[in-house]
Amino acid sequence: MTHDMTQGDESLLIDAVLNGNREAFQDLVRPYLTMWLKMATAYLSNASDVEDAVQNGLVHCYQHLGSFQARSRFSTWATKIIIRECHRLQQQENCRRVRETPLDTVQPPAEAVEGLVLLSHLLHQTLTESDRQLLEAAVVEGASLQELSARLSASPGSLKTRLWRIRKRLKQILIAAEGDINGPGF
């Protein structure tokens, strides 16, 4: 696709926009609008997102036109801005899809389930009830050392040491269990 506008034409229109001629911006972007819409369609599947990406990108171009340094053509600069806007909208859509996916519909891989069963078994075999409760409160509930200290009537320092020892013991057990699992008999 060829565009009739030269870099000199772009420079004249940019100067006009910077001097307050808003209509000059329309003349500046009009030759490239179809190209930008097609390009945004390649990134985004939703038609309204495509329009939003191009519109938001062009608003950004208009607002920051004074920072355009003419090292490349205006259309190249604007294209990069519109692509960044497409990526931003893609990220928003991906985040929205993740937030809207109910957790009970996500099935964990079989290996993860087996690993959790093994971990649960190892925890019950190797840790005392009080160590399991402390680890659960710290890791699963996210309780701070101060909260744990108040709950268990122990100093934060002693709980920190105890948690470190529990984690160290679990790490050693998991490393040993991994060797057993990956061994020839499994």
UniProtKB/TrEMBL annotation:
<dbReference type="InterPro" id="IPR014284">
    <property type="entry name" value="RNA_pol_sigma-70_dom"/>
</dbReference>
<keyword id="KW-0731">Sigma factor</keyword>
<comment type="similarity">
    <text>Belongs to the sigma-70 factor family. ECF subfamily.</text>
</comment>
<dbReference type="InterPro" id="IPR007627">
    <property type="entry name" value="RNA_pol_sigma70_r2"/>
</dbReference>
<dbReference type="InterPro" id="IPR013324">
    <property type="entry name" value="RNA_pol_sigma_r3/r4-like"/>
</dbReference>
<dbReference type="GO" id="GO:0016987">
    <property type="term" value="F:sigma factor activity"/>
</dbReference>
<dbReference type="InterPro" id="IPR039425">
    <property type="entry name" value="RNA_pol_sigma-70-like"/>
</dbReference>
<dbReference type="InterPro" id="IPR013249">
    <property type="entry name" value="RNA_pol_sigma70_r4_t2"/>
</dbReference>
<dbReference type="Pfam" id="PF04542">
    <property type="entry name" value="Sigma70_r2"/>
</dbReference>
<dbReference type="InterPro" id="IPR013325">
    <property type="entry name" value="RNA_pol_sigma_r2"/>
</dbReference>
<dbReference type="GO" id="GO:0006352">
    <property type="term" value="P:DNA-templated transcription initiation"/>
</dbReference>
<dbReference type="Pfam" id="PF08281">
    <property type="entry name" value="Sigma70_r4_2"/>
</dbReference>
<feature type="domain" description="RNA polymerase sigma factor 70 region 4 type 2">
    <location>
        <begin position="123"/>
        <end position="170"/>
    </location>
</feature>
<dbReference type="InterPro" id="IPR036388">
    <property type="entry name" value="WH-like_DNA-bd_sf"/>
</dbReference>
<dbReference type="GO" id="GO:0003677">
    <property type="term" value="F:DNA binding"/>
</dbReference>
<protein>
    <recommendedName>
        <fullName>RNA polymerase subunit sigma-24</fullName>
    </recommendedName>
</protein>
<feature type="domain" description="RNA polymerase sigma-70 region 2">
    <location>
        <begin position="28"/>
        <end position="89"/>
    </location>
</feature>
<keyword id="KW-0804">Transcription</keyword>
<keyword id="KW-0805">Transcription regulation</keyword>
